[in-house]
Amino acid sequence: MASTLRAFAPSFNRSPSRAFSIKTQMDSFARNSDAHSSTSKPREPPITLQEWQGWGSTSPVPTMVTEIIEELKVLEKNIDAQMSFGGTGGKLQGYFKTLEDKKHRATYQALGSSEQKLQFFSARQIACRLLGSQDYLCQKCWLPFEDCMCSRVKHCSLWHGARFWLYMHPKDFLRQNNTGKLLLQVFGVEATTLCLYGISEHEEIMWNAFKSAGKSKVCCLYPNKNATSKGVQEAFTSELSTKLENPQQMTDGDGILNFILIDGTWSNSAAMFNRLKEQAISVWGEDIPCISLATGSSAMHKLRPQPSWDRTCTAAAAASLLFELQLVPKFSSVGLEKQGEALEDALEVLLEALTARRIRMGRSITRKVRHASSFC
Ligand SMILES: [Zn+2]
Question: In what ranges is there compositional bias, type Polar residues (predicted)?
């Protein structure tokens, strides 16, 4: 692990390979009912700031994501084959996929460090998801336009003394059954910041905010009780809360509590948590403060391809956190229960929308096994 976030400098080979500059036809017909093609209209830049931020990020477009989208478009032009995506939107298909797979695997193998590999992996995942979701998914609810649920999701202001950091795995970005996005929808980007794992710009923004907030105002929601995590009651009636005597008078930048939610499947979450731990040690010389919940599992679990941590989806975990915080006397008057309920209501709306979609498409509404794949 690099000792500073600045050390995450990308330096992969950007030269389009001559081997792929062949003219050919591809069979890009849709393989299933979810398949669709990207538009081949020339775009400049490859992704605009407006489009990028429309998906829920408040950052500039990450440099490496822009570079990979540009590379994919160069490859598309060189082989005269249109990119097509299928499945959940971020998976390349057909002949283009075959060529692109070889190319990106060669790039990946040539990278020197695990840090560079992670950054390339994350940026490529995100680039594919962005391209596969253009003109297909609603930017707010991440569902196909015909299933957009936005009109049924109610906005609710989060208590100004708390902020969520949605630390999301790239494979969960723009996923229809992702529940972390509900925090962006319900509380807005003013109270929830999307931080994509392995995207250096995002992680830098998050850690800069944590550095200025101070370690006592940062905690990660950890799935299981262990030696380093505390229960909510224990954490907020002890040292973490010593400067929060009057929560209603808190203003921006003044003792705001930063809650990190790890938004990934079980297997991905372990690596994400380790990265947080390593960064906390490099910044503070100590482990990241953790809290764990006393409650919860969620109906959403049934629709997840893999169980999330503690069999609890991200939105349900955030709602449970708000309910448990409500029980801490000093937080009892800031409306956390209502805010947790708003999140649960949105979860219900998402579950209904996903169920209706699956029934309409003739699919099972229970979990289905997916094949693990390193790349989209
Ligand atoms: Zn929508």
Answer: 30-40
Expressed in angstroms and rounded, the spacing between residue 188 Cα and the centre of ligand 1 is 14
Assess whether pLDDT exceeds 50 at residue 27: no
Give the distance between the most distant pair of CA atoms in the chain: 69
Eight-class DSSP state of 164: E
Whether residue 68 has pLDDT greater than 80: yes
Q: Between β-strands 84-86 and 36-37, what pairing exists: parallel, antiparallel or unpaired?
A: antiparallel
Using one digit for the tens of pLDDT, what is the confidence trace for 195-223? Answer: 999 999 999 999 999 999 999 999 999 76
Q: Are 348 and 186 in contact (CB under 8 A)?
A: no
**How many whole angstroms from 145 Cα to the centroid of ligand 1?**
7
**Centre of ligand 1 from the C-alpha of residue 91, in Å:** 21
Q: How far is the CA of 72 from the centre of ligand 1 (A)?
A: 27
Decide: pTM greater than 0.85.
no
CB atoms within 10 A of CB 27: 10
Alpha carbons 213 and 258: distance in angstroms, whole number:
8
Confidence of residue 230 (pLDDT cuts 50, 70, 90): confident
CA of 222 to the centre of ligand 1 (A): 30
Give the Cα separation of 365 and 367 in Å (integer): 7
